[in-house]
Design brief:
Elements: H1 12-29, E1 51-68, E2 74-87, E3 90-96, E4 100-103, E5 108-117, E6 127-136, E7 146-154, E8 167-180
Antiparallel strand pairs: 1-2, 1-8, 2-3, 3-4, 4-5, 5-6, 6-7, 7-8
Length: 181
Amino acid sequence: MYDPLCNARASRETLTALCLSAFVMLCGATSTASTANAVATSTTFDSASKTVLLSVQAAGVQIYECRANEAGLLTWTFREPLAILMSDGETVGRHFRGPSWQLNDGGKVVGKVVAQKPGASEKDITLLHLDVSDREGTDLLTRAIAIERVDTHGGAFAGLCQQTGELHLEPYSARYVFFAD
């Protein structure tokens, strides 16, 4: 039986529709995000010398693609994230390939992973510390110098697959904390 959430080989529009369905499911099960003022930031990485600009909750999917590995076996390989960013119950932006984060005010940053730690379980994606490598705009987010992905739930997926190019959407949630000096 074909399961569109696990085996999406469709157009960008279908992928977007599937992701929105995942968002709806996750939003019902995920608490809203905290603003920077409400965060008692006990992060996983050494960020004590940095100021918290913003802390948002993300709900979305980690997208995996069926590709051949070095041994020629078809395996699920991480392709990109796709998530909405929420603060105080409101959608404030999105997270997508890059990895990139863009707020509704227009500010956008791209991160580069500099450290990672395992999630709480094997089903949870890793915790990340990223340095901001690129910015667009002049809004709040573009003041960020670092980003942490913490409190991850879900999103990890592995194993063999059957057809090159096949996609799998794995729901996840996380908190992203943006830091300035």
